[in-house]
């Protein structure tokens, strides 16, 4: 009888679970949801809208899976800084529009549901618009226009103030 030695067990590394991040943005806090590639909710959380909150959000999401894509509502307003942070960390960020009003009435409106819908928009391909990175020629032109407008406004105010001062402080005309 021949004995065969069992093959050594090889430990298979479990592949990192892919995930998609969705974020519903507000002025003071963000509600985030992480979904699996098939759309199952893995987790939701609410985090502060600060730089420390951005880091915490991404670390939380990476703890639930490998995040390569994110759908963010309001990448031009409340979500602009978060979008730039995620882009700097190598996450593809897509601008997500709000759900249709009839759809919102039918399904209900909650922040976690909005965050999940943002992630689902990325998964389904509805969200195609990439978030702006905040650098490049368009951003430079925007900053130039903003600076010029501010300078023109300051000059106009200075002229108006100077005219009022001269009129107020002039001695009365002699008869």
UniProtKB/TrEMBL annotation:
Residue stretches making up the Transposase IS110-like N-terminal domain: 21-129
Leader peptide range in chain numbering: none
Official protein name in the record: IS110 family transposase
One Pfam family it belongs to: DEDD_Tnp_IS110
InterPro entries reported in the protein's UniProt record: Transp_IS110-like_N, Transpos_IS110
PANTHER family in the cross-refs: TRANSPOSASE FOR INSERTION SEQUENCE ELEMENT IS1111A, TRANSPOSASE FOR INSERTION SEQUENCE ELEMENT IS1547
